[in-house]
Amino acid sequence: MKSIRRNLALATCSLLSQQAGANAFENDWELDTSYLSYQESNERVSVKKFIGDVRGKVSDDDSVSFKLVHDTLSGASPTGAVKSDDQRVTFTGASGGGEIDAGQNDALAAFDDTRLALSMDWQHTMNRHLKTTYGASISSENDYESFGGSLGLEKESANRLVTYQAGLSYTGDTIYRAGSGDTPAPLAQVSDTRSFGKGERNTWEALGGISRVINKRTVGQMNLSYARSEGYHSDPYKLISATDGDGNPVDTFYESRPDQRNRASLYTKLAHELSANRNTVHASYRLYQDDWNIRSHTFDLKYNNKLGGGQFLEPHVRLYRQTAADFYKHHLAVDDNVDVIMPDDGYLSADYRLDRFWSYTAGLKYGLPLGKSGKLRLRAEYMKQTFAHAEYRVNSAVIMQASYSYAF
Known about the structure:
Elements: H1 2-16, E1 29-40, E2 46-57, E3 62-78, E4 89-90, E5 108-127, E6 130-140, E7 144-156, E8 162-175, E9 183-184, E10 195-196, E11 199-215, E12 218-231, E13 239-243, E14 249-254, E15 260-273, E16 280-290, E17 295-308, E18 311-322, E19 357-370, E20 374-387, E21 394-407
Parallel strand pairs: 4-5
Antiparallel strand pairs: 1-2, 1-21, 2-3, 3-5, 5-6, 6-7, 7-8, 8-11, 9-10, 11-12, 12-15, 13-14, 15-16, 16-17, 17-18, 18-19, 19-20, 20-21
């Protein structure tokens, strides 16, 4: 009976755990490296990402994890402005940011940026049923800085078939335009030189969850999270055009978003091992809602097909759909005197990420062991997004990833 409970507990960790510190290791330490390439169509955004993660035990009751992420981003990002004949705006920030010259109001903005992020988790086993995890993170870009901390609790039931999780995290962000180090005045004309200092944003998030071993082949999980952020939420590079009756742009303004946001999400997941071939099916659903009136639904399905010799092939499908933010608008209208009609509440954005849209992702992952302690993973995916009102209605991307882990 003891060995059965142990195997079920290990199944829970391997199938459902979202924290690296909760994984069970055959060896004391494990090094995990990954290289990811993300390339959008039509020479849009290109991302090259390297991830290095080392984790292991430092005592019988303590384990630690260190992660390094290095991104290089380049290409052209939609600004929110209506297409015009002007030249592209050149940016040096990751968000599509940098200096904007008056009159250069093209809908695409070229950018080039690098991001470096570091994080650490420390997990302590207080007793055979209770674990605590402490986390810290820091991230830096040309136009963005972030730091955060987290605390997590994980408690198993007496029979070790149910695990309760709770967590609290804080993130502090600093946002500004590269070069100038400031933020534009909300809804100011692009030609307006008024600006403010760096934008500050504070975010608190709480999470509670439960995972349960339903039977020897099935594990279920449910998480509920709530987050509240206060401060600067606008993107200092996003624009919105005012157009005449024929759709021609007559002026361009910076966006303006509310200074707070409340978000809630419900996440459910089921992992089931098929008795005939021991292949596993992973299905999850996430419901998200915030007070900007964005609601999203995400369905994710993976089928892990074991090929023998430690190899596997895993098809993956992801479907996503969201509504638009209350203050999203493709463009501003003008009256008979060609005066721009501004919103009464002062909030407005043409950022395509706040538009109503749907997307699907389909891909395949292949894994195989390398030697006694190494593992190689290769992943290829295709993503397509379709927007309801954005200036660029369709976006697609190809994602390629290679990962190698080594236990020692």
